[in-house]
Design goal:
The complex is a heterodimer. By secondary structure, chain A is α+β, with helices and mostly antiparallel strands. Helices cover 29% and strands 34% of the residues of chain A. Chain A has a 6-stranded antiparallel β-sheet, with helices on both faces. In chain A, strands 7-13-10-9-8 form a 5-stranded mixed β-sheet. In chain A, strands 12-11-14 form a 3-stranded antiparallel β-sheet. Chain B is an all-alpha fold. Classes of the chains: A alpha+beta, B mainly alpha. The interface between A and B is large, with 59 and 57 residues. β6 of chain A pairs parallel with β1 of chain B.
Chain lengths: 277, 233
């Protein structure tokens, strides 16, 4: 007898339930988000977030949120997949191998607080999201579908956060990328980056970056670094090329004379900021 | 598709008659039967029968109603609630109970109890489960393996399947079925097949699943039925 492909069946059911866009509803009881919380996005079907990290700057807060799902057959990758039971809701959810950044207001207005997780469990979720590989099958298709569905909220949250930082009006340090480096980038593999994203924003390990295309000036990248780096010697590299090395005087750095690329996603991912010893 | 929201609203507001409630329970029981048939196995269904008795469908339907009442705000926000959504919820409840290792149903619900389930505890503490019952893990592993077998059948040619089986039989020191090619030619075919297999399996090759289990399923589902693929090129 032919064995049924349950993963395929669950994917077909899921697709018939979920539209191409995420429809989300406002919550009835707004509770400010905090790290370690488990929250439910009011959507159809629901999506869950475990708040793993808070990135705060003055009054502004952005959260790193590990994504969890009720779709067990589709989301379960191996025996390491973290499973959380919510007995009071007769629900079981599992972690997915990715995370998003969500700003405080989005979480406040669109997610219900369900409860909290301890530090160890949050570490397990982060570790899994970083380590687990997305398979090349329907489960991978499902994970990528959800990533795409949440991408606008991730981008929007980072942009909103950056806009709020702008309101603090720091005087930026401005640098010009040398011409030879610019030419190198334009001729390198970065020039073939696919135009998949409309907004060129990126949250690196310890920085935020945004690329803006300014008429007459050309593309410009702005980096926002952590406050506690001020006064320290830092080095900013792009692959092996040093973009800046010296004492940080302001958390906002601008670089001009950027290469002309269709999309900066992979270019931004190659930036590395370190404190020099 | 039929909208179940009016019924659910009446349950949440405790305005439903006993007759209507029983009718809705019967609909939910039918949905659970469908969930078992299409998304689980008859063995899993038998486990529910064994642990919850002949009324296991009623127990499950009550659990779904408990969930609706516990998440009443979310359910009331939805513009409509169709059968597919209830089916998806039913599947999750089956997984929820399967992951409990069939402990006593945490709290039974009946029509008269609905008012008691109104307030949620907002300070709940949850844990990542460290020890899941083997029945839960095995079922998910088997689902992943079945899916992998489907992918192999779909993406590999007859010749490639033959080569894969030759390798598996060789690994088990068993005599491979007749392959009309020299050992050298098969070895070359195997080398060409490896990158394709890596792509289908993924780098992790089902971490946590033993190679034995994987090979066993490939052997029984593909190699022993190779003749059935004869028409494939």
């Amino acid at each position: 007898m032919k064995k049924p492909d349950r993963i395929k069946k669950q994917w077909e059911l899921y697709q018939s339930l979920r539209g191409k866009e995420l429809i989300i509803y406002p919550v009835s009881q707004k509770i400010p988000p905090k790290v370690n919380e488990l929250r439910e996005l009011c959507s159809f079907p629901p999506i869950y977030f475990a708040l793993a990290e808070e990135i705060s700057f003055y009054q502004e807060k952005l959260f790193k949120a590990i994504v969890l799902t009720e779709e067990i057959t589709l989301g379960w990758l191996d025996s390491q997949t973290p499973v959380i039971r919510l007995p009071h809701l007769r629900t079981i959810i599992i972690a997915l191998p990715f995370w998003v950044y969500l700003d405080e207001n989005f979480l406040l207005n669109h997610t219900d607080r369900l409860g909290v997780l301890n530090d160890n469990d949050i570490c397990r979720l982060v570790d899994y999201a970083e380590r687990a590989k997305i398979p090349q099958d329907i489960r991978g298709e499902y994970v990528r579908f959800l990533m795409k569905l949440l991408a606008p909220y991730n981008t929007e949250s980072i942009l909103t956060y950056l806009e709020k930082l702008e309101e603090y009006q720091f005087a930026p340090s401005v640098f010009t990328i040398p011409d030879d480096l610019k030419t190198y980038y334009e001729n390198s593999h970065f020039a073939y980056a696919k135009a998949a994203s409309s907004k060129n924003v990126h949250k690196g390990k310890n920085f935020f970056a945004i690329v803006e295309k300014i008429p007459e000036v050309g593309p410009k990248i702005t980096l926002y670094l952590p406050q506690d780096y001020l006064g320290k010697k830092i080095i900013i590299k792009h692959e092996n090329n040093v973009l800046f090395e010296g004492t940080l005087e302001t958390i906002k750095l601008e670089f001009t004379n950027l290469p002309e690329l269709a999309d900066y996603t992979s270019w931004l991912e190659a930036i590395n900021v370190e404190i020099s010893i | 598709m039929y909208d179940h929201k009016p019924n659910i609203e009446r349950i949440i507001r405790n305005e439903i008659t006993s007759e209507e409630y029983q009718k809705f329970l019967n609909i939910l029981k039918r949905i659970f039967r469908r969930a078992f048939k299409a998304h689980f196995t008859s063995d899993i269904e038998k486990l529910f029968h064994k642990f919850y008795g002949p009324d296991y469908l009623e127990v499950l339907a009550s659990e779904l109603i408990f969930r609706i009442v516990s998440k009443k705000d979310s359910f009331l926000k939805l513009p409509y609630i169709n059968e597919k959504y209830l089916l998806s919820t039913a599947i999750n409840i089956i997984y929820f109970l399967l992951s409990s290792g069939f402990k006593v149903v945490e709290r039974e619900v009946n029509f008269d109890d609905l008012n008691l389930a109104q307030e949620e505890d907002k300070e709940q503490e949850f844990n990542v489960e460290s020890l899941l019952p083997p029945v839960f893990v095995n079922f998910l592993e088997d689902s992943a393996l079945s899916h992998l077998i489907m992918s192999l059948k779909k993406r590999l040619t007859k010749k490639e399947l033959e080569t894969l089986c030759w390798y598996i039989y060789k690994a088990y020191k068993q005599n491979p079925k007749d392959v009309k090619a020299s050992a050298d030619a098969i070895y070359k075919r195997w080398e060409r097949l490896k990158p394709k297999l890596r792509e289908i399996f993924g780098e992790e090759v089902l971490e946590g699943t033993s190679a034995d289990k994987l090979f066993y399923v490939i052997k029984s589902e593909i190699c022993e039925k190779l003749d059935l693929f004869k028409s494939r090129k």
